Please model this.
Amino acid sequence: MIRIGVVEDDAISRDVVVTHLAHYQADRGETFDIAVFEDGADLLAEYRSNFDVLLLDIEMERVSGMTTARRVREVDGDVAIVFITNSPQYAISGYEVQALSYLLKPVGYGAFAQELDRVMAQMKKRERRTLLFQADGVHHRIDVDSIRYLESAGHRVLIHTLTDTHSVVSSLKAMEAELDPASFQRCNSGYLVNLRHVTAVDQSVCHVRGGTQLQISRPKRKVFLAALAEHIGALGS
Amino acid sequence: MIDQTLPDIPRVVTGLAEAGACLVYLLILRRRMAPLAFAAIAVVGTLALIATQAAADLLPLPLWTLGMLAAVLAMYTFLRVCLDSTRLATVYLTARAFVLAELVASLHWQLHTFFLPHGAITGPAIVLLIVTFTGCFVLAWFAEARHLPRGGEVDAGWRETVAAVAIASATFGISNLSFTGANTPFSGRIGHEIFYIRTLVDLCGYIALYAQQEWRREVRARAESQAMQSLLRSQHDQYRTTKRAIDEVSRKHHDMKHVVQAIRAEEDPTIRARLVDELEQSIADYGTRFRTGNAVLDTVLQAKAMTARDEGIEITCVADGALLDMLTPLDLVTVTGNALDNAIEAATRTENDGTRSVRVALFAQDAFVMLRIDNTYDGVLLREGDMPRSRKPDADDHGFGLRSIEQTVATYGGSMSINADERWFSLRLLFPRPQKSGDSASR
Model:
């Protein structure tokens, strides 16, 4: 069940949002667990990372939506935040709290449902994936997100994660087939890089988290950079 | 082999011609050093070029090509040391300087053997040398100064450089064919004609390279005028926006006068409060402005938002505008203006039921800056290669503006990607973040 928090000080606007949520559940066959708050302070008082989505009004009497969002982000990096506002000039700094869009009042159902569709799709995408392999006679199951890059080494593949390196009897091609091509790209024929850990690219060098520098080969450069643009662009969309 | 009575160009003269040709370009373009230091380096460079030629003369005939390559390398080094430009551009200039040197040396030698058949280094010979060299190089300087940026930097791409090197090699090859003694349809056999053929071929090569540069300049000018046009168009949009805003304000002012009068006259405090509320509501819209921290971006957004609103499209923007400060205003207008025009146009193809929307997001991630422009669209995407194709009838003129966005982004070392599902079209522009931030290890 998806848990949604609605934070809105104006009773009329709050009713609109709650009605839209009911309408959306009936429309899409979803069931939401909805909690309503009259101010950011009320939400923060009992916040325990127990929401999937927060619908936040920005202009509130006591604690504003932006302050609320910042405080929430300090403890919860995963919850999706959607601002609902009268005046976009406040929402424009939403990038600080990874809220990359907002709804303008009065909120029509069409725009509301469309925004919620996006949030739902984003949540589905965020499912954790794991990779299973055997190294040194031991079975491992690691979080795909923790892989920094894979390196081809003869008949073996080195899996460099944030903390360890595993050596697996396999080929880079076989491993590549198991991983999501949207997140894993070859920067040259011997390395398969997890794009989420690419921290910088200058000229033909790709910097990977942990201080590793990998060469980007000329023929792979364009595709690699386009995939990187797509990957970073997919954040919060 | 060449006739004994017709000696070929002395190596010193060739070296001098090469130095002269290099100087023609060096005196036009931007140099790395102050004039005095440059003069010193120019003297050293000239001597080095003559020395290279003299050393090449000592090589046995089969290694003649090697000697020529050494001379070309020396010219490249001379240009590279003095000029403030990229390696590729220097290669391009070396090709041009080399052909010019060949042309002048050949022309001079043709005149020399005609007027002074015995070829001794006499007073008149030196005068002839000085007159021809000075005349030719001054002429070349004026011709080149017309189309190279004075005190500026030449930029050459791979394609142009390869073309220039090919033209120079072909010119050099054909012009020297007669001297190899090979009996081919393109080589002369009789004395002076050999020199004449060489001069003519070199002249053709020089003209070809000159024309190539001229063409390059024209292409660049056209691109610039296109960018300028889009800037003008956006300024025109801005003008219309301002005009409309002024009209609207004066209309509002007129309305407000009546409301204020009504408030003054009203005795009942509740009605009075309601009137004040209404007044506040009626001007609420005028406060909404984009303030991203980048004035150019704000202006573009403001102008496009006005156009969009007429079509029932709400532009939302979450942006740290300062991240785009590295773009020149012209580039920023080109990129965002084009992208928003496309987004608005595509959004209008869907039903106007309150769901038409364009969303702009601009944020930093590690050492990257991401500008993302999403829009709702009808799900129909015509592709041409890896690019979506415009659906306007005169598609060639518009080409979606994507090419121009991609080119501009590329000049900042960035890249572009397009993502689309059946509801949303998303344009993603990735730029490297200018200054290295120390927080790249955290996420």
Notes: Residues 11-28 of chain A form the longest helix (18 residues). The interface with chain B takes residues 86-89, 91-95, 99-102, 104, 108-111, 113-114, 117-118, 198-202, 207, 209, 222, 225-230, 232-237 of chain A (CB under 8 Å). The two ends of chain A are 21 Å apart (CA to CA).
